[in-house]
Amino acid sequence: MNKNSKTSIAIGLAVGILVILFIVIGAGKRAKAPDGRGSPRTPSAPETAPKEEKLPTVEGGTRAMISETITAPEPGATSSGDVAVPISSIELKGASATAALRTFEMKAEKNTFTPATIVVNELDVIEIKFTAVDKDYSVLLPDFGVYRKASAGETVKIQFQAYPFGEYTFLCSDVCAPAVQGKFIVNKRS
Question: What percent of the chain has pLDDT over 90?
Answer without folding.
Answer: 55
